[in-house]
């Protein structure tokens, strides 16, 4: 329990901007152990994305606690969250969100540079990551020249550049065709096998099947939290079914 | 350090993606800063050659002319505050004949060993030497006007009509009088014995004395005491202030114009910069959010934006400083740079640049870090204008464009305003151009009804008058005389121009009051009214060569000469000793007559006996202003273009998603394009129209204000002609639409992305 990568206690998010306050997340308690691969599922508007955004400090919580690597994080300022994200949290978004003006190489090197790596180390790490993701020859391309799947792989490389404690993925395959979905999921599985903790939001049950544990949200509350006790080879097989 | 590296990458990539816009920003800021620096250098005393000349020559503060060299003249050296006396030097009026032209000159006797005070500084050649009795040293501006070189002969005619040839031994600078030809007569120095030979008659010469004071501020007091002390002996007197003003006349006008343009241009550039930065930030909200999700703090993002956009502005400031410095050094010489004002301009513009980009940068820093969140959807309902467009059944593309134009209120305002300001300045520039054209086309409106001044020269005045009256192209002849008059309490001389008869006045362009109609009435230039602190209807008392001249000022005329410090009267208002015979005849020619031909004919008929001079039109003297106007329009167009690119980029970004919808609704690519162009075009038309109207409404007043302060007087300003203005507006709108068309065309043809923002 004490070595949880991520822990929330009674996490609540209320959007009070509109006429009627919207309770997006209502008291979520979640403990993420190192090396876990969690899929967060639920219908649209169930608060999945809000939850993941709060875990990464992109959105401020209304009440409750968030602990990252054993340290309280919900009380941090926006800037402190940013500093925390540099080293400990990697993000992958549905729409890839590569910086449009920068080349693939620069996009991947940026987080490493930001975390204080020297340009040489950042370059080495980028070469390694792009090599692993089969994108070496696209290093100098601009994101607009890439297919959606390629873009998402670059986004993944970028999120992993600093070897974060936890990778937060918000519908990483939501905008991809099945072939690219398979590629991206295989990569996620691969990094998970290497010990990467992953929290992935999805509404696709087949995608969620890849995870060790599936958390279901409904109207901002956890309605189901179950471990999938399958061999990983089985999951890989399940993914191939998607074809 | 780490953020600096990462941020550097981002800035580099972003700048690479918008090279054109970045270059525009830099150029626009650079142009404005260069103009401001040139302006301030022109306005600053440092550019005024008087200061260094005065220091080099250890000049005298007060100069006065007397008929004789008496003990009282020498006594002025004992006045309180006077440290040293230059002279008295004997000075004789002569005419220099060079290349067939005759130029008035004063031949000044000075010893072979230059005096300690107010000594001319030899720029070329050497000073006078007793070994060369026919040597002459010519004042530099006079030598330049005559195109004299060392060793060349200088033919002069004394008042007696006798010709002498002197040889140029040196060319020297002096702070004793202004530059030729603004200040006449030209100045040349000879040895006393040479002058005695050329002009043996003491009665035909005067004595010039300079007083150097311990405190320049005591000039007024000392000169008044000189006036009182010398009384009737005093011919005229002027101080260093008039000399300085004469030397800086054109610099000031140009400087004021540049400063006005620079200040307004700076506001426009700051707006353009803020608009460009703001538009860019709006367009990049998603990227900024991504940066934040990667671990940039809000402050760092803001700093990043500030550095990126600020650096462009600062680069512009740096380039502008270099350019301004280069221009001033090239035109005025290296010593003319005044470091403090230039530094304050650099610091001021740099601060303004940072302030202009600061707000958008701060806003960018506050972007929420969730990149998936839609970036501020433009909330727009059909504006009244769009509803009107719908009502009059405009094509749907235009209605949509009309709606789009104002969905973002602040950028729409910034775009329209950002175009209106440059357009206003362009209109003002065109107005100045029109005013100069008006000077050239209608010289009579600036007091130059007569285009030739003919002095009797060697001829008998009656014979000269007969000759000029007989010429077929001469419409009217006005006998006249220019005399210097001492103004009471001013301790300095002003020009009195007596021309024509009081009953038959010279057609002065009187803009206030009326022309003089009888002896004892006068019209004055604005400069004179300001100098004496009088207004129309007041009576002034002046002293002309010892005899009083009392006139009532009945009107104000446009007066381009002598900073407007000219009093014009009828010849019969002067005492006969000053007016008979007339010093010159002002010739008004028939419309269409070529003054060069008339001058040549008169010279031929008089066998080179007449002294014919063409009147210098102020437009010729101010020709450099036209260059400034062209440069200014170029820079302003850059600013307008920068604004436009921002507007068009923002419009495209806002509507990239709508394009799919529009196409789905059945709009053809052409209609889509029309929608996009209408969105920007409407703002352009609005901005340009407002700018042109504002420009036209202020231009006359502004030029008149400048005319007032420079002494010429109000009443000279002309708005640009309707034709010019219409063309300017059409060109501006046309260019703007063409610029907006290119991206719109590309967007309309492009495959529409279906991804969300």
Write a structural description.
The complex is a heterodimer of chains A (243) and B (757). Chain A has 243 residues and is of the alpha/beta class. Helices cover 35% and strands 25% of the residues of chain A. Chain A contains 8 helices and 10 strands. In chain A, the strands form 2 sheets. Chain A has a 6-stranded mixed beta sheet with strand order 6-7-8-3-9-10. In chain A, helix 3 packs across helix 4 and helix 5 runs parallel beside helix 6. The N and C termini of chain A lie far apart (39 Å). Chain B has 757 residues and is α+β, with helices and mostly antiparallel strands. In chain B, strand 16 and strand 17 form a beta hairpin. The radius of gyration of chain B is 33 Å and the shape is elongated. Chain B starts with a helix and ends in an 8-residue tail after the last helix. At the A-B interface, helix 2 and helix 3 of A face helix 1, helix 9 and helix 10 of B.
Compute the number of strand runs of chain A.
10
What is the approximate shape of chain B?
A: elongated
**Helical/strand content category of chain B:** alpha+beta
Tell me the fraction of residues in β-strands of chain B, as a range.
Answer: 15-25%
End-to-end distance of chain B, in Å? 32 Å
Give the helix level of chain B as a range of percent.
Answer: 40-55%
The major beta sheet of chain A can be summarized as: 6 strands, mixed
Number of helices of chain B: 22
**Largest sheet entry of chain B:** 10 strands, mixed
Structural class of chain A: alpha/beta
Which regions of chain B contain 5 or more consecutive residues with pLDDT less than 50? 373-377, 753-757
Number of strands of chain B: 20
Biggest interface: A-B, 38 and 33 residues
Whole-Å distance between the termini of chain A?
39 Å
Average residue pLDDT of chain A? 82
Overall geometric form of chain A: globular
**Radius of gyration of chain A using CA atoms only:** 18 Å
Q: What's the Cα radius of gyration of chain B? A: 33 Å
Summarize model confidence as the mean pLDDT of chain B. Answer: 80
Order of helices and strands of chain A: EEEHEEHEHHHEHEHEEH
């Amino acid at each position: 329990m004490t070595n949880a990568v991520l822990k929330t206690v009674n996490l609540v998010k209320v959007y009070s901007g509109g006429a009627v306050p919207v309770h997006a997340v209502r008291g979520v308690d979640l403990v993420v152990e190192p090396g876990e691969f969690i899929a967060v599922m639920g219908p649209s508007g169930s608060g999945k994305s809000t939850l993941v955004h709060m875990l990464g400090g992109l959105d401020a919580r209304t009440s409750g606690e968030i602990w990252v690597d054993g340290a309280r994080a919900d009380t941090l300022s926006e800037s402190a969250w940013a500093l925390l994200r540099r080293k400990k949290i990697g993000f992958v978004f549905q729409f890839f969100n590569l910086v449009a003006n920068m080349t693939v190489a620069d996009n991947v090197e940026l987080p490493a540079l930001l975390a204080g790596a020297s340009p040489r180390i950042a370059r080495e790490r980028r070469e390694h990551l792009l090599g692993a993701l089969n994108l070496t020859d696209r290093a100098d391309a601009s994101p607009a020249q890439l297919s959606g799947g390629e873009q998402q792989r670059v986004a993944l490389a970028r999120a992993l550049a600093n070897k974060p404690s936890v990778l937060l993925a918000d519908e990483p395959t939501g905008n991809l065709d099945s072939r690219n979905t398979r590629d991206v999921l295989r990569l996620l599985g691969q990094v998970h096998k290497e010990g990467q903790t992953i929290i992935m939001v999805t509404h696709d049950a087949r995608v969620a099947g890849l995870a060790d544990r599936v958390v279901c949200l409904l109207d901002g509350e956890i309605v189901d939290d179950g471990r999938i006790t399958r061999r990983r080879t089985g999951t890989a097989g399940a993914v191939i079914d998607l074809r | 350090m780490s953020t600096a590296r990462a941020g550097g990458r981002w800035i580099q990539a972003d700048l690479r993606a918008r090279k054109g816009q970045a270059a525009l920003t830099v150029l626009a800021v650079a142009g404005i800063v260069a103009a401001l620096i040139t302006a301030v250098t022109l306005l600053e005393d440092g550019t005024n050659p008087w200061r260094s000349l005065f220091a080099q020559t250890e000049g005298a503060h007060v100069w006065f002319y007397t008929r004789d060299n008496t003990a009282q003249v020498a006594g002025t050296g004992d006045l309180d505050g006077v440290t040293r006396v230059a002279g008295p030097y004997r000075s004789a009026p002569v005419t220099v004949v060079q290349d067939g032209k005759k130029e008035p000159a004063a031949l000044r006797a000075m010893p072979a060993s230059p005096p300690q005070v107010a000594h001319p500084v030899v720029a070329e050649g050497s000073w006078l030497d007793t070994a060369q009795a026919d040597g002459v040293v010519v004042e530099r501006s006079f030598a330049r006007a005559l195109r004299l070189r060392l060793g060349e002969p200088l033919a002069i005619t004394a008042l007696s009509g006798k010709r002498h040839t002197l040889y140029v031994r040196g060319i020297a600078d002096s702070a004793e009088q202004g530059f030729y030809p603004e200040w006449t007569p030209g100045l040349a120095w000879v040895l006393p014995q040479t002058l005695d030979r050329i002009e043996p008659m003491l009665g035909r010469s005067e004595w010039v004395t300079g007083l150097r004071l311990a405190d320049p501020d005591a000039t007024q007091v000392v000169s008044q005491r000189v006036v009182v002390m010398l009384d009737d002996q005093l011919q005229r007197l002027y101080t260093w202030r008039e000399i300085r003003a004469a030397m800086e006349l054109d610099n000031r006008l140009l400087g004021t114009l540049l400063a006005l343009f620079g200040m307004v241009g700076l506001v426009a550039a700051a707006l353009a910069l803020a608009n460009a930065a703001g538009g860019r930030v709006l367009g990049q909200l998603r990227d900024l959010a991504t940066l934040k999700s990667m671990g940039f703090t809000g402050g760092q993002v803001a700093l990043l934006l500030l550095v990126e956009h600020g650096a462009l502005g600062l680069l512009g400031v740096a380039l502008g400083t270099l350019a301004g410095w280069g221009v001033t050094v090239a035109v005025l010489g290296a010593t003319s740079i005044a470091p403090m004002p230039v530094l304050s301009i650099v610091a001021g513009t740099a601060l303004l640049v940072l302030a202009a980009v600061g707000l958008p940068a701060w806003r960018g820093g506050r972007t929420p870090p969730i990149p998936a969140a839609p970036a501020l959807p433009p909330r727009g309902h059909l504006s009244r204008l769009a509803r009107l467009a719908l009502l009059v059944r405009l094509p749907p593309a235009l209605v949509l464009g009309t709606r789009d134009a104002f969905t973002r209120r602040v950028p729409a305002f910034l775009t329209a305003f950002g175009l209106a300001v440059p357009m206003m300045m362009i209109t003002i520039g065109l107005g100045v151009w029109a005013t100069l054209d008006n000077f050239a086309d209608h010289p009579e409106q600036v007091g130059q009804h007569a285009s030739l001044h003919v002095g009797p020269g060697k001829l008998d005045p009656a014979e000269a008058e007969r000759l000029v009256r007989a010429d077929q192209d001469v419409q009217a002849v006005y006998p006249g005389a220019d005399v210097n008059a001492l103004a009471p309490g001013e301790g300095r001389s002003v020009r009195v121009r007596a021309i024509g008869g009081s009953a038959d006045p010279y057609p002065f362009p009187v803009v206030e009051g009326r022309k003089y109609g009888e002896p004892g009435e006068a019209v004055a230039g604005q400069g004179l009214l300001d100098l004496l602190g009088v207004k129309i209807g007041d009576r002034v008392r002046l002293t002309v060569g010892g005899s009083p001249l009392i006139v009532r000022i009945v009107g104000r005329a446009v007066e381009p000469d002598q900073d407007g410090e000219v009093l014009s009267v009828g010849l019969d208002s002067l005492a006969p000793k000053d007016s008979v015979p007339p010093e010159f005849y002002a010739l008004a020619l028939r419309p269409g007559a070529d003054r060069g031909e008339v001058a040549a004919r008169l010279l031929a008929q008089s066998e080179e006996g007449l002294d014919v001079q063409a009147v210098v039109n102020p437009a010729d003297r101010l020709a450099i202003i036209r260059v400034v106007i062209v440069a200014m329009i170029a820079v302003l167009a850059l600013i307008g273009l920068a604004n436009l690119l921002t507007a068009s980029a923002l419009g495209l970004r806002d509507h990239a998603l709508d394009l799919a919808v529009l196409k789905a609704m059945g709009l053809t690519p052409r209609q889509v394009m029309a929608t996009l162009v209408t969105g920007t075009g409407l703002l352009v038309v609005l901005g340009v129209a407002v700018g042109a109207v504002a420009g036209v409404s202020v231009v006359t007043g502004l030029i008149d204000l400048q005319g007032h302060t420079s002494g010429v007087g109000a009443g000279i300003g002309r708005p640009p002609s309707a034709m010019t203005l219409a063309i300017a507006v059409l060109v501006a709108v046309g260019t703007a639409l063409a610029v907006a068309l290119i991206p719109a065309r590309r967007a309309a043809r492009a495959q529409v992305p279906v991804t969300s923002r």
